[in-house]
Known about the structure:
Blueprint: E1 15-20, E2 24-29, E3 34-39, E4 45-50, E5 60-62, E6 65-69, E7 75-79, E8 84-85, E9 97-98, E10 101-102, E11 104-107, E12 111-115, E13 120-125, E14 130-136, E15 148-154, E16 157-163, H1 170-178, E17 182-191, E18 198-208, E19 219-224, E20 243-248
Antiparallel strand pairs: 1-2, 2-3, 3-4, 5-6, 6-7, 7-8, 9-10, 11-12, 12-13, 13-14, 15-16, 16-17, 17-18, 19-20
Amino acid sequence: xxxxxxxxxxxxxxxxxxxxxxxxxxxxxxxxxxxxxxxxxxxxxxxxxxxxxxxxxxxxxxxxxxxxxxxxxxxxxxxxxxxxxxxxxxxxxxxxxxxxxxxxxxxxxxxxxxxxxxxxxxxxxxxxxxxxxxxxxxxxxxxxxxxxxxxxxxxxxxxxxxxxxxxxxxxxxxxxxxxxxxxxxxxxxxxxxxxxxxxxxxxxxxxxxxxxxxxxxxxxxxxxxxxxxxxxxxxxxxxxxxxxxxxxxxxxxxx
Length: 255
């Protein structure tokens, strides 16, 4: 019967969040810190306890794992199948935060790219509980300030977009709402996804980076619809504009 419940467990508190994968499921209580963990396969109770979460808004759920910061702004990776913090013995990571949320991007295969408070790009393999690389990127951020962050992968390359402005303009707002990669006045960096080596960096004023379907290409396309100019304030109808830029993926050169 397809309607039959595969797993039914009673929990000890009202539920704030549920996350899991094929191995384990974690149930967070209403206080956003207490938890219970169960085997996803057979419902067997695994563990329970309380996590030292500083801000509940900082929690990022990736499969059965939780990334969160404590009251000292240190990043933790709790694996509910193992019942432990996988980053406990690593060099401490203090992620950048905006509006109480950790500045990061969840990628495919349960990996998360985090921006640290010192402008490091840190790739974490959540599935295996390890830091893949820590790459300094401060020299590419001339303003020294990152307002928001977006990251994506294309053709075996990892791209990180560090925006120094708020999400202004219709195109950027829509990209944010839809979860599409975007950049607003900042550097676009191309990295090796295994080593973290930065191949190139280029500054982009405004851009949304769609995934181009069809045959593989070494071209990276961005588009934007800039905000209306002063004509609007002078009583004229705004003119819709579409700006398209094409970059060479291998060099970052504007074509």
